[in-house]
Amino acid sequence: MTTTNPNQPNRGTLRGTIAAAATSFLLGAQVAQAQAPGIGESNKSIVQSAFDEWAAGTGSPYDLLADNATWTITGNSLASKTYGSREAFISEVIRPFNARMRVGLKPTVRNLYAEGDTVIVFFDARGTARDGQPYVNTYAWFLDLRDGKITNAFAFFDSIAFNDLWQRVSVQTTGQ
Fold first, then answer.
1. Which is it for strands 149-157 and 65-73: parallel, antiparallel or unpaired?
2. How far is 56 from 98, CA to CA, in rounded Å?
3. Where do the DSSP E strands lie in the chain?
4. pLDDT digits over 53-69, tens only?
5. Helix boundaries (H) for 36-94
6. Sheet containing strand 134-146, strands side by side
């Protein structure tokens, strides 16, 4: 004779609930993919083109930033925080970074992933600082796009390498 413990859920009911939840999740994912199969690929293509132009020295992924885009640098770098607009991010991070460089960054994309509005770019970038030392870092950017523009971004990178450059090389102020 089997007795049931009122404090323990019925295993058959629990298995059924888990199976139903998993099936619902998978069906929801399939429906989402079926509704917009081209959005992810389109966004991936837009970001890939921007990185190709950046590598060729003819453009930049920052050209894709919407005016009201937020860009969050995660972690503990000297630049880690959320920037509330394109101009805030460009003026507080990108311009001062570029002013520290003799030869600007050139990216090498390792992988690009896309799912709906989000594109993840995993890449290495290297350049030469004004003091002649190389700057090399690996990045992962999570980009949300809407109508071909980046509206929200989260950036991950080696903050030790970034902080070293940021502290070692002053911003060049002559000739700008």
1. parallel
2. 16
3. 65-73, 82-83, 101-115, 118-129, 134-146, 149-157
4. 999 999 999 999 999 99
5. 37-56, 86-89
6. 82-83, 65-73, 149-157, 134-146, 118-129, 101-115
pLDDT confidence of 37, banded at 50, 70, 90?
low
With a CB cutoff of 8 Å and minimum separation 6, the contacts of 134 are 126, 127, 128
Looking at the predicted structure, is the pLDDT value of residue 17 above 60?
no
Whether pLDDT at 128 is above 60 = yes
How far apart CA 51 and CA 60 sit, in angstroms, is: 7
Can you tell me which residue has the tokens 């298995």? 15
* Contact criterion met (CB below 8 Å) for 122 and 108: no
Cα 49 to Cα 55: distance, rounded to the nearest angstrom? 10
Query: Would you say the C-alpha torsion 83, 63, 176, 104 has a positive or negative sign?
Result: positive
